[in-house]
């Protein structure tokens, strides 16, 4: 596997891990202040999906399905960021004029 793909897959895994951490924190402790909430929104922007779907998240099965969707979306977002960074770091060299 090339360096670019390792970076992209690593970033995608990081995005999934961030979502899993946020879900477990919210699910087990449930209380957090606005500063922590702002940090969660910065690290996992797809978590804003919870706001309009809060009524559906009252059922346990729906809660896990919605957070799985949020996790996959955040993983894809981190993979796109990783691809952009990989493109900047390992861009093909230009031939001399």
Summarize the structure in words.
It is a single chain. The chain has 97 residues and is an all-alpha fold. It contains 3 helices and no strands. It has helices at 3-28, 34-43, 60-89. Helix 1 (3-28) runs antiparallel to helix 3 (60-89). The longest helix has 30 residues, at 60-89. The protein is elongated, with a radius of gyration of 17 Å. The mean pLDDT is 86.
The shape, in one word, is elongated
How many domain modules?
1
Strand content: under 5%
Number of strands: 0
Structural class: mainly alpha
Compute the number of helices: 3
pLDDT < 50 runs, ≥5 residues: none
Largest sheet: none
**Mean pLDDT level:** 86
Topology as H/E string? HHH
N-C termini distance: 32 Å
Helix share bin: 55-70%
Mind telling me the C-alpha Rg? 17 Å
Question: Secondary-structure blueprint of this entry?
Answer:
Elements: H1 3-28, H2 34-43, H3 60-89
Keywords:
single chain, 97 residues, mainly alpha, 68% helix
Produce a short descriptive summary.
The mean pLDDT is about 85. It contains 3 helices and no strands. With about 100 residues, it is mainly alpha-helical.
């Amino acid at each position: 596997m090339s360096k670019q793909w390792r970076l992209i897959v690593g970033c995608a895994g990081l995005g999934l891990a961030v979502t899993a951490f946020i879900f477990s924190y919210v699910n087990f402790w449930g209380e957090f202040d606005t500063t922590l909430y702002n940090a969660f929104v910065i690290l996992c922007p797809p978590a804003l999906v919870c706001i309009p779907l809060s009524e559906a998240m009252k059922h346990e099965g729906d809660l896990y399905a919605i957070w799985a969707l949020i996790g996959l979306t955040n993983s894809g977002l981190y993979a796109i960021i990783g691809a952009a960074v990989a493109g900047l770091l390992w861009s093909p060299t230009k031939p001399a004029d």
